[in-house]
Amino acid sequence: MNVLGIETSCDECAASVVVDGKTILSNVIASQIEEHRIYYGVVPELASRIHTEWIAPTVQAAIDDAAVEIDAVAVTNRPGLLGSLLVGVSFAKGFAAAKGIPLIGIDHIRAHLYAPQIEYKLDYPYLGVLVSGGHTVICKVTGYDDLEVLGTTIDDAIGEAFDKVAKHYDFGYPGGVAIDRLAQKGDPLAFRFPGPKIREKTNPYDISYSGLKSAVINHLDKYWDGKSEKSSENIAASFQRTAINMLIKRIRAALEDTGLTSISVGGGVAANSYLRSELEKFRLGGYTVAFPSMRLCTDNAAMIAALGYHYLKDGIRDGYDMKASARVSAFKKQYTPGG
Ligand code: KG4
Ligand code: ZN
Fold first, then answer.
1. Which CATH number describes the domain made up of 2-113+299-331?
2. What residue spans define the domains of the chain?
3. What is the pLDDT of residue 41?
4. Which residues pair with 55 in a beta bridge?
5. Which atom of ligand 1 is nearest to the CA of 11?
6. How many Å apart are CA 239 and CA 251, to the nearest integer?
């Protein structure tokens, strides 16, 4: 089955054709990074306006590259920026109606967690880690549609923390890439930033980034070692070390407690070189570690088409009244202090 995937949940306008959830025939990603750079972040109104201009040529390019008949359309309809989601959803409805083919709405987070299955053959269950600008989720993935959230951020997403620190110090945009690059030349111990103040006994896999972000932005001197240079490189390296180590600690705890032996990491922050090198160490411990290639880590429509195939195969479809939703409650684990 040739499924056309459409993804417009944030600032990537993407379309892809995937055969039977596995073989990618085309994967077109038109990124709006340049359009949002001057604002140091994604401007929702601007993002949706650009999607309306780009969606038709992007889908056309994906279909031309694939050069096959399209059997069904899968589109991200949750979660994300509502105005942006609506562009993809409306286009997909029109496309499906014009062609008389099935339509299915896809959860962006489930698609990120499914992405490694396109390139790897990971046996379920595995530990899924999604680290992006909008999400930080650690979960047990038991099937293409089944997962159990073990931990999430209780405030900022990890990528958001990278972006906000970079914006404050004018390191560059997108912030994660700029910090990763600066950190290569910095001393990660120049500043000893604190870890999150979460009751780890009761919430061992939850994470918080707002305290770290505030420490780096507002209380630099308090955590300085007193002798190193207060350079951009040293700030970046020290922040990155703390942010990633917090995550690694929770991944390790989740692996040990669940007994899972495979781990898949996706989302934009999965590109981080320090995170990747720390996760390589899990391989030495006998774990299978899957990093989807970069084009499948960041936002793309191949993961939407690939996951869509499974629902369609199981007879699941949406009608033309399908809604777009900014949020998905399943991925907000309620944090209860002390409980
Ligand atoms: O998955 P993604 O492309 O979009 C979202 O769904 O959010 O992730 C974007 C996030 C941004 O916060 C960006 O700063 C971060 O991924 N990022 C990185 C790196 N490359 C991108 N963070 C840390 N290190 C990187 N090398
Ligand atoms: Zn994403």
1. 3.30.420.40
2. 2-113+299-331, 122-291
3. 86
4. none
5. 4
6. 19
How many other CB atoms are found less than 10 A from the CB of residue 287?
A: 18
- Residue 69 Cα, ligand 1 centroid: separation in angstroms? 34
| pLDDT > 70 in the chain, percent | 96
CA-nearest residue for atom 16, ligand 1, is 268
* Matching CATH number, 122-291, of 3.30.420.40, 3.40.50.720, 3.40.50.300, 3.40.50.1820: 3.30.420.40
| Token digits of residue 260 | 């899972």
Q: Which ligand 1 atom minimizes the distance to the CA of 160?
A: 12
Q: Which ligand has the minimum distance to the alpha carbon of residue 11?
A: 1
Ligand nearest to the CA of 107: 2
Instruction: Say yes or no to pLDDT of 336 above 60.
Output: no
Q: Phi/psi at 315 (nearest 5 deg)?
A: 80, 15
Does the pLDDT at position 319 exceed 60? Answer: yes
Instruction: Return the structure tokens found at 224.
Output: 């300085």
